[in-house]
Amino acid sequence: MEFQLPEYSLRMMLPEIVLFLAALVVITFDVVTKRKSGTAVGYLAMGGLVLTAIVMATTGYGRGFGNMFIVNPLALFFKVIFIGAAFMAIGSSFGITQKKIVNHRGEFFGLIMFSTLGMMFLASSRELVSLYIGLELTTIPLFVLAGFFKDDKRSVEAGIKYLIVGAFSSALLLYGISFLYGLTGTTDLFQMQVGLATKQIATQGNMGAIMVVAIVTIVAGLGFKLALPPFHQWAPDVYEGAPTPVTAFLSVGSKAAGLVAFVKVVVIGLYSFYEPLMKPNDWGIMVGVLAAVATILGNTVAIRQTNIKRMLAYSSIAHVGYMMIGLLAMNELGLSSVAFYMFAYLFTNMGAFAIVTLVEERTGSCDISDYNGLARSAPFVSLSLAIFLLSLTGVPPLAGFVGKFYIFAAALKQAGSQAGQDWLYWLVGVGILTTVFALYYYANVIKMMYFGKREDPPKITLNPPAVAVVVIGLVGVILFGLYPAPIIEFASNIPLSYGFIVP
User: Fold this and answer.
1) Cβ-based neighbours of 260, under 8 Å, separated by 6 or more
2) 355 falls in which pLDDT band (50, 70, 90)?
3) 235 close to 313: Cβ distance less than 8 angstroms
4) % helix, strand, coil for the chain, step of 5
5) Using CB atoms within 10 A of its CB, is residue 436 exposed (0-12), middle (13-18) or buried (19+)?
6) Which run of H or of E encompasses 63?
7) Is residue 118's pLDDT more than 70?
8) Pseudo-torsion of CA 266, 270, 276, 279, nearest 10°?
9) Which residue, 216, 134, 206, 135, is CA-closest to 175?
10) How many angstroms separate the CA atoms of 15 and 68, rounded?
């Protein structure tokens, strides 16, 4: 049999190539200018991301390298989120790069771009090996970024913890993937889905302990990446210790990448093992329990936090729970609702962390008490943060409300249309109830800003890139809350990606 190389199309990978070259240019520029470029290297990095987005918009859908690399609605939608998160993270970083990262600005921005590159490869991957490589390219730069402040013990601790947890979760994920390969003889996700369904029929649904171990280890490995309880212990410490723009990027970009990996491996690859009829080889109820724990634990523990970054860390754990509720809706609304939720979360969380970065630069602290009376000295900053926090709560007419409504509607439709899915009613009830808990700790920050008593509230210095990030976040939160139709229409094409079908 003659060996043939797979057909490839570099055109479909052109956005990734442009981003890779742009990251190299950013690092080289900083070195060539002898680290004296000031803000120029940051603007160059943001320009590289804009160029990547323009190239991506003109590339369209298609396949490359056989069926290993594919651009479909799922990949394109999340690539927009990845690029947006990187752009806003870099825009929020200008203050700290002027004060704390004077000699390594190029590396700092370049690592964010390389991590984004890994996310984009992950989104377009159709088979398990390239998906895993994309996931590692995403997380390895983040290990370095989390511990970028070498003189700060908390930052070094964050980097080490993230490295250890990341390595452990990768090992678990590879362990589970090896079982799937052993059962099907393929790493192609679509062929694996068909192979598992065929083997399931041949064994009359009883595939033994191997399938149970595979599902548990894969969910655990991806659960670490998503900070899904009980695999969340690293998140608060890493979020607190990492540079705040990196924390923002972790909370949105890295989470979206983990979400894509979860969708591809579990929701799509293990699609036939969702039903309760597949016990003990089903993953639906197990993920449902984890989602309920995430919303309860995240929202209740966040109430006790005195550090705003830790509060937002536990908040992000709760938001992962809400996203899992949407993923459990295996209907035409399921994936599209999660995609819209993640899109709204991009503007909301990146905007909130941009404000936190500005306040931290002025006060040197992330204590919630530092926000006392902030509305008197920084009305724009306070109003912006209040809007972002209300959107995270899910207050109409902001984008966060539309995202939660869409997710709960998808889960309720699944519960009402599929036999044996009544437990989803309870899960939605838990989600709605814990949203009320979230209102308490978000509103507490707003109360402090507007009604807290402080003789000398900090005056916030606004730099143009950070203001641009805050304005972009405000426009996204308000505009897509009032007029979500274009994004919902785009997201509605994503269920076509269940079978990796290119329209």
Assistant:
1) 74, 78, 119, 122, 123
2) very high
3) yes
4) 75, 0, 20
5) exposed
6) strand 62-64
7) yes
8) -110
9) 216
10) 16
CA distance 479 to 379: 21
What gap in Å lies between CA 101 and CA 105, rounded to an integer? 6
Q: How many residues does the chain have?
A: 503
Please report, as a single letter, which amino acid is at residue 283. W
Q: Phi and psi of 493, rounded to 5°?
A: -80, -15
Confidence of residue 208 (pLDDT cuts 50, 70, 90): low
Q: Which residue has the tokens 């007029």?
A: 483
Query: Can you spell out the DSSP letters for 288-334?
Result: HHHHHHHHHHHHHHHTT-SBHHHHHHHHHHHHHHHHHHHHT--STTH
Q: Tell me how far apart the alpha carbons of residues 67 and 79 are, in angstroms, rounded to a whole number.
A: 19
pLDDT band of residue 502 (cuts 50, 70, 90) is: very low
Q: What is the rounded distance in angstroms from the CA atom of residue 43 to the CA atom of residue 25? A: 12
Cis peptide preceding 236, ω within 30 of 0: no
* 125 phi and psi angles, rounded to 5 deg: -75, 140
* β-sheet bridge partners, residue 63: 70
Give, to the nearest 10 degrees, the angle between helix 73-92 and helix 40-59.
170
Q: Write out pLDDT tens, residues 231-272.
A: 888 888 889 888 889 999 998 988 899 899 888 888 777 766
CA angle at 199 for the pair 331 and 132, rounded to the nearest 5° = 65
Over residues 16-73, the pLDDT tens digits come to 999 999 999 999 988 888 777 778 888 999 999 999 999 998 887 877 777 788 888 8
Residue 395 CA, chain-centre distance (Å), reads: 21
Block residue for tokens 């607190």: 240
Residue 2 in this model has a pLDDT that exceeds 60: no
Q: Which amino acid is at 222?
A: L
The token duo for 492 is 């509605």
Sign of torsion over alpha carbons 126, 127, 132, 133 = negative
What does the CA dihedral 275, 279, 284, 286 come to, rounded to 10 degrees? 170
Angstrom CA distances, 162 to 26, 93, 101, 235, 247, stand at 26, 21, 21, 8, 12
